[in-house]
User: What shape does this take?
Amino acid sequence: MVFVDPFFSQFDFSLGVRSEDTENKLLEFKNQIRKSCEIVGLNNELLHPKSMAESETDHYNNMAMMNDWVSELLGQQSLKLEMIALETEYISALKEYYGTAYFCFTGVNSLNFGQGRNPMYYAHSLSNSKRLPRRFTTLHFFLFDIESGEPMWFLNKGIGRLPREFKINSLLFDIIYQLKNKGKK
Assistant: This one.
């Protein structure tokens, strides 16, 4: 399985918009992906621009191509169009290049609206029937089969108020374990 550009974003809106310690959290998240795959015996490749060497321009181009393909595919699905994404011809070659048809987009978003009168929190509360907690974290996991062009697994899972490492690791490991047991490589 190829993990395409994993992300970890943590924002604090309580005192204006402020990005928190996301680089270290992203490094921990990428290490957890590798460790979980290693434990369950799932072959994997991580495509992330900040960890690529200068000589890995082919990986960078592949990552950009996958991002474009998925964006186009999701855009067509949201409009209920039944079309083949334009990049499909080029994407099919990636199966041979990486030895798998399974490409995953995953990451974590964590938001803190803080105490008091935060306009962003109240704007969301007014426009949405469900009130959000002042802090919440979501794990995103989207797995695509590039051969069929079909999504295999879509998960947006709220995992609590804070980005607790053990919750993220546990859920991520569980997903990877289930994928391995279903025979996805």
User: Anything to note?
Assistant: The longest strand covers residues 102-112.
